[in-house]
Amino acid sequence: MRKPFARNLLVSGAIALAAFATGTVAIAAGGTEPPPARKWHFQGPFGTYDRASAQRGFQVYQEVCAACHSLSLVAYRNLTDLGLTENQVKGLIKDITVSDLNDDGAPVDRPARPADRFKKPFPNLAAAAAANNGKAPPDLSVIVKARQYGPDFIYGILTGYVPYDKLTPEQIKEFDVKKDDNFNKYFPGHKIAMAPPLSDDKVTYADGTKATLDQQAADVTEFLAWASEPHMEDRKRTGVRVILFLLALAGLMYAVKRTVWADKH
Amino acid sequence: MASSHGTPPVFNNKVISWIDHRLPIFSYIEKEYHTFPTPRNFNYFWNFGAIATVMLVLMIATGIVLATNYTPHVLMAFDAVERIDRDVPQGWLIRDLHMNGASFFFIAVYIHIFRGMYYGSYKAPRELLWILGVVIFLLMMATAFMGYVLPWGQMSFWGATVITNLFSAIPVVGESIVIWLWGGFAVDNPTLNRFFALHYLLPFIIVAVVALHVVALHVHGSNNPTGIDPKGPQDTVPFHPYYTMKDGFGVMVFLIVFAAFVFFAPDYLGHPDNYIPADPLVTPAHIVPEWYFLPFYAILRAIPDKLGGVLAMFGAIAVLFILPWLDTSRVRSCTFRPIYKWFMMFLVVDVIVLGICGSKPAEGFWVPLSQLATLYYFAHFLVLLPILGKIERPLPLPPSIADAVLKKKAV
């Protein structure tokens, strides 16, 4: 009974093997230009997250991205890492309700707590796919680590849309772009399901920063970089101490080794 | 000579003396790690055995901690690893150490293998020592492969699919073997579960084979850069403190480089796609293994036939098992082999070229280049080595290690 199914899987596996062996599934291959390298506050061995930018980025996520993209690995309480106080976090989530079970096991909606993970826009993947032309928007929890060029790619996608009437006839022909397609300079294959999510003044920043497209894209990328690796600052701080310690110990070991070997060379 | 050195040590501490009389672990340590006569002329290449041991211990220690926080289930594994990163105190550190530790374990072992090949450490009477080393290498590859599957990202899933599918190339029974390996009809939860179990088991088997490797090493002692045997006490120094201290220094330097990656570029050696949760319905554009498998991956893809590719890939390691008998030269060290020395260096270049080919999509000129590099890899072992030993005229060997050391000093 199951044999044909097993055979199909084996065959598809073999095809996958043959396909990568010959490079025929190289969907992303070809000339998508890499996104321009930007300077990020969190770059380099001593780089930290720009708290103000990341807080603005959270606002962009919450008001724009969260309509479709989940951030399932981050909890509301984690926002205190970005410099918000516990009360500010409670204030931010006071209007959010989440599904839960009450003590009798009945499904209820209750106010979100700081310990809750970010509420997902769709109850499940199938619902997310159904509402988005058959493909669920990716979760953004580790998106910056999950893409080549990391933050530059995220920023590049958010700012890299080219309207249909600005495309050259060659581009339209080569990538088979239709009037309703979204063309993005930095997306592999260029045609992206996501419509341009940001534009000037899409949000009104609480701190009065002018909400240009570039500003919003940079802020939300800063926020997502933090979401992808909340412990990055701790990692770098620890690293400096570990390497200084190892350097000292290596120096000491070298001195000991020299002394021990003094009579042999 | 290791078996004949020294008289049984006398311990002043009564407890140690009492235990040692019944279970001679202290005598053993004294004999094998203190007074053990070791050639006095090691260069820093000889640090990498100790470094590899340190990495093995580090991998097991961090791995046990990770295992206590991990969940081997297809629906939970990806998030479990992220929770280790985010919610387990210092979990990010343990995970970064483990994930980069695998790479640095391979770096240490590759340099260790190179050292063995360059200085002829595999030749009589150390053939079994070498073969045990190749067994460790194979076990490491299996362990690393299964470990890479555990985070259940896209590369985990598709790497597992591709590698397990290799076995379907075996005629007649291949398909049954693949289903048996998977524990079902696709890479799924049973596969993840068994990979986790085996990933936890194999390191301890590696420890056991390392123990045999060390026992075999201590029968005839270490080789050395001249490749000639020590002829007396003037050629050797006690292992401790001379090499314990030198190894200690080498380990520290290695750990500094390791720490630079762990703390400042933890994801540099990984693939971004493995931060995308596994999706059996979406094939990544390029399925690539971890960097340390790339030369073998290039050999696999260089052969246009599936079974042929699989045989060539395993053959590339199998050929190492018979290396002691392929090399017909009686001189061990490349220092005194003016022709072979350059071929040995060229083999390193060839393996690096294979690694680069393995990281590129198999198209365009990468295909003939990887075929050429594969051909050369096998030609090195199966043609050049046996012939060179016959026709090469080695340089005159120094009369003794002490002689070589003192002469170098005088120059």
How would you sum up this structure, described in words?
The complex is a heterodimer of chains A (265) and B (411). Helices cover 41% and strands 6% of the residues of chain A. Chain A contains eight helices and five strands, in the order H-H-H-E-E-H-H-E-H-E-E-H-H. Chain A starts with a helix and ends with a helix. Mean pLDDT of chain A is 89; it is low at 1-30. Chain B has 411 residues and is mainly α. Chain B has a two-stranded antiparallel sheet with strand order 1-2. In chain B, helix 5 runs antiparallel to helix 6, helix 6 packs across helix 7 and helix 11 (294-302) packs across helix 14 (340-359). Chain B is globular. Chain B starts with 13 loop residues before the first helix and ends with a helix. Mean pLDDT of chain B is 95; it is low at 1-5. Chains A and B meet through helix 1 and helix 8 of A and helix 4, helix 5, helix 7, helix 8 and helix 10 of B.
Give a short summary of the structure.
Helices cover 41% and strands 6% of the residues of chain A.
User: What structural class do helix, strand and pairing data of chain A support?
Assistant: mainly alpha
Instruction: Spell the H/E element sequence of chain B.
Output: HHEHHHHHHHEHHHHHHH
**What's the count of strands of chain B?**
2
Cα-atom Rg of chain B, whole angstroms?
Answer: 23 Å
Contiguous runs where pLDDT drops below 50 for at least 5 residues of chain B? 1-5
Cross-sheet strand order for the largest sheet of chain A: 3-4-5
Note the run of SSEs of chain A as H and E.
HHHEEHHEHEEHH
Specify the number of helices of chain A: 8
The termini of chain A sit apart by: 76 Å
Separation, N- and C-terminal Cα atoms of chain B: 31 Å
Mean pLDDT of chain B: 95
Could you estimate the helical fraction of the residues of chain B in percent? 55-70%
Q: Estimate what percentage of residues of chain A fall within beta strands.
A: 5-15%
Structural class of chain B, by secondary structure, is mainly alpha
Arithmetic mean of pLDDT of chain A: 89
Biggest sheet statistics of chain B? 2 strands, antiparallel
